[in-house]
Amino acid sequence: MTKFIALRREPRTTFLGLEARPMVDKRMRIAQDAPESRRSEVLREIGLARVEPDEQLPKDVNKFQRLGYAGAYVVDTANDVMAAKAREVLTPDYHIMPDIEMGLPKAILSQRFVRRPRRKSYWPAESGVAEAHRQGITGKGVLVGVLDTGVDADHLEFRDRRLPFRYVPLQPTEGQIRSVRGFDTNGHGTHVAGIIGGRNVGVAPDVELLVAAVIESETVKTSLERVMVALDWMLSHFQLPENADKPFILNLSLGFRPEWIGVTEIQSVVEGMHLLLRTLVMDFDVLPVAAIGNDGPGVVRAPGYFPECLSVGAVGPDLRPPWFSGSGLSPVTQETEPDIAGYGVAVLSALERDLDRVSIYAEKSGTSMAAPYVTGIAALTASANPGLQGEALRRRILDNALRLEEGGSRVGAGLARFV
Asked: What is the distance of C-alpha 392 from the center of its chain?
């Protein structure tokens, strides 16, 4: 394995003795620690070049990226000898794992609209969204990260708005991360971002969106490396004093199934994913919200089935789970998934623009629509309750859920709603 990902085993909250410190102090201290480390120096000493996000190096160069906020390294070497030297530098404090492929659950597009359909409300009364907006609660002061195919930043739902965006290339250690105006050649990410924070159709229209394009439009596939690089960029926003106390919710429509991973690698991958999610939760008080998948009853996807995530299944306007919504036992905890349900059938949101720059809308179905709905509900709840974030926010969302008569374990605690 000449290319690998190394994830810190011990949360920095524990390593730096920050467990009892206020959340703002914890985030700022970890942000100070992120840019450099002694191990980076040692990796350079043994012959690896450090790659910065805006750099591009030849393919055959021994290199590494330090993802200091995410507590990780990506090492890419030309031969097994150099890879072994790098692993020796990083172990035992870091868990070594292979890069893995991840993908989107396939969403179903049911209808396109050349113009936004006019409706009294874009969300059912049971959601509590209209009531939240009536009270002036719209997600202000909440950061939401979206890892997807991108976002059309000039769609009517996002136009005239500053929307931080990064395109993470197929091979981040070889290509440059692009900081540009948001684009999306697939439409999935635009639809997801619109559900969360669209000006007209969004659950929480005033959230501060951070969008990273990590999924290829043709294959709707990505890699853990691309996800890690994007997460590091998102977490770096905590170095700014104005963001230090803001709730952060991460929307994950992507995932993988255990059978996609080789038998010899699955345990390493499971441990590595657990460490990554634990870093998000323990070091930064992030709430990860993840689609459970569109593979139907009896099948669940990671990372949704990890305990750190709030896993989301779908229901329709009739509050019944559709045929595609995943459910089942988590192979990690042996507990029933999903944790909660969100609207995921014929959900209206932004899609793309045509050649005349007319904003197109679409109704799509999938748990990757239900997850951003729940993300939006979490943003409204956090905005209405300053200081509520991370695990405490997760518990509040579950406690506030509308219990459903139909669906049983396929809908978890029930429908996520604002109350």
From this structure: 19
Q: Report the percent of the chain where pLDDT is more than 70.
A: 99
Q: Any idea what the Cα angle at residue 323 is, between residues 381 and 116, rounded to 5°?
A: 55
The Cα–Cα gap between 350 and 190 comes to 6
pTM, to two decimals: 0.96
Q: Please list the alpha-helical segments (H only) found in 236-366.
A: 266-278, 284
- In the β-sheet with 3-8, what is the strand arrangement from edge to edge? 49-50, 63-67, 72-76, 3-8, 94-97
Rounded distance between C-alpha atoms, residue 41 and residue 64, angstroms = 11
- The CB density around residue 114, as the number of other CB atoms within 10 Å, is 9
**Of 208, 177, 188, 48, nearest in space to 105 by CA:** 188
CA-CA distance, 308 to 303, in Å (whole number)?
A: 9
- Complete edge-to-edge strand list for the sheet that includes strand 108-113: 108-113, 359-365, 347-353
The reported pLDDT for the residue numbered 176 is 75
- The tally of CA atoms less than 13 A away on the side-chain side of residue 270 is 19
Strands 221-223 and 208-213: unpaired
C-alpha Rg value of the chain to the nearest Å: 21
Model confidence pLDDT, tens digit, residues 257-304: 877 777 778 888 889 999 999 999 999 999 999 999 999 999 999 999
* β-bridge partners, 360: 352
Task: Determine which helix (DSSP H) or strand (DSSP E) holds 342, and give its type and residue range.
Answer: strand 340-343
By the 8 A CB rule, do 310 and 340 touch? yes
- Report the DSSP pairing between strands 101-103 and 49-50: unpaired
Give catalytic residues, as residue numbers.
148, 188, 368
Distance between CA 343 and CA 323 in Å, rounded? 14
Beta bridge partners of 248: 143, 286
From CA 355, how far away is CA 369, in angstroms rounded?
26
